[in-house]
Design a protein that fits this description.
The complex is a heterodimer.
Chain A: H1 9-52, H2 56-65, H3 68-83
Helix pairs in contact in A: 1-2, 1-3
Chain B: H1 5-21, H2 28-33, H3 37-45, H4 50-56, H5 62-84, H6 87-96, H7 99-114, H8 118-123, H9 133-141, H10 145-151, H11 158-161, H12 168-190, H13 193-216, H14 221-227, H15 237-245, H16 248-254, H17 261-264, H18 275-295, H19 301-325, H20 330-336
Helix pairs in contact in B: 1-19, 5-19, 6-12, 7-12, 12-13, 13-18, 14-15, 18-19, 19-20
The chains are: A mainly alpha, B mainly alpha.
Chain lengths: 85, 339
Amino acid sequence: MVDPSVVDPAIVAANAKGIIAIGAGIAVGLCGIGAGMGEQAIGAAAVGAMAEDEKFFGKGLLMTVIPESIAIFGLVVALILLFVF
Amino acid sequence: MGKSQAVKYAYIVARVRAMKGKLIPKEMYPKFLNMDIPEITRFIGESEYKNEVDELGKKYRGTDLFEHALNQNLALTYRKLIEVSQNEANYIITEYLRYWDIWNIKTILRGKFSGASEEEILEDVVSAGQLRYRDLLDLIKITSVEGVIAALSKTPYYPALSGYKGVLADIENNLDKLYYANLIKAGENSKDRFFLKFLRTEIDLKNLKILFRMKSAGMEREEILKLLIPGGIELKEAHLGRLAALPFPEFVRALEEYSYWKAIAGVSNDLTSLINIETQLDKYGLVNITRISYYYPLSILPVLDYIVSKKLEVDNLRIIVRGKETKLPEETIKAHLVM
């Protein structure tokens, strides 16, 4: 009979990997939602300004992608989780 | 999840800010004073008014062209605001721009009352409200005041018009009161405290102008009270009652208690003409809305700031051109400009 207090190291490793993957997924997912929420107002404003004056295209685009850095933070955390641990 | 306040107003605010950037800068007005009418028309024809000047250039000349181009541009700009806004902003803008319906109804009724020609009335009509240009053309074709009122029976303005007994001043007054009462109701419905604050300040400024005019004309308290619009922020009904009862010099002194005093303090010594007072009050209104629109950038206030600024731009241009046409001295024209 197998002693229940002895856990197979292969199962532990597999479990840990799974949890890390979930963590990485949550990091990227939540950061994506956050960046999207940040961008919705900026994007709307950029389109509004651009509709009046095409010169705002460059500035509008720049402003719109600034919250995108949050998504990159999430990606970095996910990569660290997946490849460092 | 509902949209936040910021998201609701981001689009329309960015758009009107870009539109405001295209208004004529105030440094230009002194330059206009040194130009002749054809030069000003050419300048205007190369600016935001290009389409209107080109389109109407075939039909009109000189100041008529100017007047029609300004009115048409104003109407199209305001109509565009209604078309590009959504939900709450759209509701408030639509209600606020009913001002022009009132304006048009008054213009047409006055025209019919004094027997002006259709062309003359058309010159002053600005179809920026809910009554379309076509509707207004139909109204202008009616020959009598009663006929115009009957044609308006299906509009929300009819309650103010139905009591017409041969005196235009009464229904004009009713129209103003109806407009502001509906606006206050709209502000309360939308629960937009910024809009309500702006509106109540505007009512105060309007009441102050009425008070100045009536007081300098020596009208009785009861007569003045009939004209004043209820709902101001500082000048509540009790205040208005007190101010209306005072003789002119004491009335001016009593205004020191209110925050509007700082707007008119500089010109309160010379009250032979009310032009300075009215210009200063308009200027106060403009400065006030511009200032608070920067305090609350993602609200309805920047849109209202644009509406007010655009109207004043058109008024200023009209003052300059009309002043030049009648050869008024530069100083007099300058005194009328709100900038």
